[in-house]
Each structure stands twice: as structure tokens, then as C-alpha cells.
Amino acid sequence: MVTFISSEKFRLELKWAKPFYLKEGECSLEGAFFTGPVLQVAQKINENDFMMLDFYSQYVSLVHGVYVGKFSWGEVIYSDDGTKVFLKNAVLSHNSELNNVPKLEDNDCFVIDTGNHTMDQHNFNMLYKTILVNTDNYLYRFGKNE
């Protein structure tokens, strides 16, 4: 089980139905949505926005420097109960030199730590620490025999 966030209330998950790799360095995430405890305390998510996801701590065995992806989206639709935020035109893009990172699967999920992004801290922390977990909620360990 994934336990990398200092406080569970700052956990944000990004899930999707199907990833599509239409061009190098870009993955469209069909059926993308945010969920997690932080949605109960966070400000409303803006439409046509993005966040920079920092994967370095997990991908350190695959890349020789920073590994940051830009996750962008268009329209935002909140579920009636506020526990999910559906994202239209969701795209994860990264520098094409990082193509040795694993391809996303249908049931994978990004777990995003938003703890450094409170109103008073956000402007000093432009990256969101992010890890990739599989369908069983286990952390991928790249480059290690499991």
C-alpha cells in the first residue's frame, strides 16, 4: 500500500479509463478524474489549467535528471457529492527525451501530494510530488526485481 504523504488529507489521486499515446511525449487520458480527501478542503479546480507533476523520486532509476510532466485539462465537472472531479481533454506531456519511462496502463493511478500547496505555500512550490501506483494500490518499483 502507498504511504508517502505526511497527511492523508492532502492526498489527491488522478485516475483514468484509458491512456492514448497519439504522439511522442504526450499521453491523452480518456475518462480522467481527480479523487481523494483533499477535494473536501481544496479550492475549486479551474478549467483550462495544468499542474507540474514531479516523478523524480520514483523514476530515479530510469532517468538521469529531473522528471517532470505537465498535466493539463480543459472542462472540469464536479460529481454531485463532490468526491470526484471529471476532467475533459486531459493530457500528460513530458520532454521527448524521457521516452524510456513506462507506458501508463488503464488501471494505474497517480497519487499526488498536495501538502505543500496550501494558500500560503503554493507560490513557493510549483511542483507536485507524484508517484505511480498500480490497480492494487502498490507502488511501482522501476529497475528492481519485485
Overall morphology: globular
By secondary-structure content and strand pairing, the structural class works out as: mainly beta
Mean residue pLDDT: 77
Show unreliable segments: 58-66, 142-146
* Number of strand elements: 11
Question: Biggest sheet, strands in spatial order?
Answer: 2-3-9-6-5-11-10-1-4-8-7
Straight-line N-to-C gap:
14 Å
- What is the subunit arrangement here? single chain
- Approximately what portion of the residues adopt beta-strand conformation? 35-45%
Q: What are the secondary-structure elements, in order, as H or E?
A: EEEEEHEEEEEE
- What is the helix tally? 1
Query: Helical percent range?
Result: under 10%
Q: How would you sum up the major sheet?
A: 11 strands, mixed
- Using only CA atoms, what is the Rg? 15 Å
Number of domains: 1
Walkthrough of the structure:
This protein has 146 residues and is an all-beta fold. It has one domain (8-133). Helices cover 3% and strands 36% of the residues. It is built from one helix and eleven strands; from the N terminus they run βββββαββββββ. The chain has one helix at residues 56-59; strands at residues 11-15, 18-23, 26-30, 33-35, 49-54, 68-73, 76-78, 84-87, 91-93, 109-113, 127-133. The protein has an eleven-stranded mixed β-sheet with strand order 2-3-9-6-5-11-10-1-4-8-7. β2 and β3 (26-30) form a beta hairpin.
